[in-house]
Amino acid sequence: MTLKIRFTILLGILCAGLGLGLFVLHHYEERETRLILEKVRSQRSELLDRINVLLGEPLEQFVAEYAQWTEMVDFVEAGPADPAWVKINLQPALENYQAQVIWVLKPNGELITRVDPEGAPDHQVPRLPDPASLVAQLERSGEIHYFYEANDEVYELWGGPIVTSEGWTETAPAHGYLIIGRAWNRSFLDKFAKLLGCQINLHAPGDEPDFPDQAGASTFHLMRELKDMRGQPVRILDVFYISPELQQVSESDRWEAMIFLIYGVLAIGTSMFFAQLWVLQPLKLISKSLTLSDTGPLEHLLREKSEMGRVANLVKTAFQNRVDLREALDERARLGRDLHDGVIQTLYASGMSLAGIQATMRQNPAEAEQLIDQTRRELNATIRDVRNFITGLEPESMDPPSFAKAVQVLLDFMKGGAEIECTTAIDEQVDELLSLDTRAQFLQIVREAASNAFRHSSCTTLHVALSHRPNVILLEITDNGCGFDPANLPTSGRGLDNFSERAEAMHGKLDIISRIGQGATIRFEIPADSNA
User: Fold this and answer.
1) 101-136 pLDDT, tens per residue?
2) What residues pair up with 104 in beta bridges, in sequence order?
3) What is the dihedral angle through the alpha carbons of 269, 270, 274, 275, rounded to the nearest 10 degrees?
4) Beta strands 421-426 and 461-469, pairing class
5) How many angstroms separate the Cα of 121 from the Cα of each of 95, 101, 118, 156, 183?
6) Distinct helix (H) and strand (E) counts, the chain
7) What is the SS3 assignment for 177?
């Protein structure tokens, strides 16, 4: 078992112990909070019912006092309503008893008068509920108390029969009926909430409770149904409490858990600090060095005489061996690429030249002799290139008279006497600025592209262009051959791969533009500052 696994297991055991302790503490505190919450909920529920009764008492008191008032009986019996009496006796009652509307009805339910706040528009005054239903309810029970909705607001109604001071009995007829209504609007709900020390809203039955953003362990909802005449809920009274007692308990629990957690973290941290310093940190530096392939992170360890120091020195030695191996592989790849683009293509061209010489030897011996001399010179140059490869020199290290002339000589040789028109458009300024390395790379590219065009495309023209754009040097080789599909290239050859590798080595960009039957263009773009 490695040290890392052992320390990981130890850390896991310590963290599991800390987590178990926190779980037990949280479970105990949650149970305590739940008990306190139930106690507070019970107390607040009882207080809500008491205050609700107290707020309804003014309406109930109004009905009890005014419905058995002798003057009210006389007012009902007198016939048409007396506006002056209403203004003096009933209008002030709206404010005194915290109501918004009063209705006085005849025994048959016909409206005698309606009292509402002075100046209130008719559309803001609630309509009278079904008089027949009201009278039937009053005749059965002697009083009414229920809620109903009007003008997008909920109203609480209290009502009773208008009788003499002896009181109402089932046998004594009622002289009329008195009904008072109060709106449970926002101002009333705010007053209600202030008395309870909570937040209150009304919502339709079945809707989700309000105040979702404030939900927590120290909050709870109390619901009361506001029922209509038939006992069906018109609205749900949603009372939302934020309990200071529970907040204090929760805050205390959080501090207890925080202290426990801090102590546990300090204990675990102290235990792991020295393990990290003496073992895990050196291993981390070694791992980082291996990941980055750099001995920089090992600078401190390389000076130590400990086991970790010896490991760091072994890593440094392995890095040097890997660098040597990479250089050897890179050199092998370079040789393979240059042999393919240089020597092999020259041998292909020599073979094509010899085939052309055989065809022209009888008809034009002088031209055949020139082609033989040219082929011999190219073969000798190829031999020199191979010798240069062996000694580690670049095949194009000699400084030719110019890039344009070198390209023209190369194309004349590569076509091997075939009837192919080879043209060039070389910018002289760019030609003079080409470094020896860039010139060698470009010649290898031209050689490979021309060889592919002559051997595979059946072209009759080939054009090589060297130009410049702002900060860019552009090399293009274009033929009018049969073309190909760049998306479906053969995988057996090395030529196109060599193109990509050379473009990458020169920090340039390679574009292959071709369509079947429309020729092909090989385009290289390299930054001007890379021509060094």
Assistant:
1) 999 999 988 999 999 887 777 767 788 888 888 888
2) 113, 178
3) -50
4) parallel
5) 17, 13, 9, 20, 15
6) 16, 13
7) strand
The residue with tokens 């529920």 is 45
Tell whether the torsion through CA atoms of 385, 389, 390 and 392 is positive or negative. Answer: positive
Say if residues 102 and 93 touch (Cβ distance below 8 Å).
yes
Q: How far is CA 19 from CA 33, 257, 386, in A?
A: 20, 11, 72
CA distance 379 to 373: 10
Chain-centroid distance, C-alpha 365: 78
Contact (Cβ atoms closer than 8 angstroms) between residue 11 and residue 272? yes
- Hey, how many other C-beta atoms are within 10 angstroms of the C-beta on 21? 15
Length of the chain: 532
The single-letter DSSP state of residue 109 is: S
Q: Which of 109, 108, 106 is nearest to 73 (CA)?
A: 106
Whether the Cβ atoms of residue 233 and residue 226 lie closer than 8 Å to each other: yes
pTM of the model: 0.46
Q: Which pair of structure tokens corresponds to residue 459?
A: 């072209």
State the DSSP string of 206-225. TSPPS-GGG-STTEEEEEEE
Summarize pLDDT for 375-424 with one digit per residue, the tens: 777 777 777 666 665 555 444 444 556 888 888 888 888 777 778 899 99
Looking up tokens 């019996």 gives 77
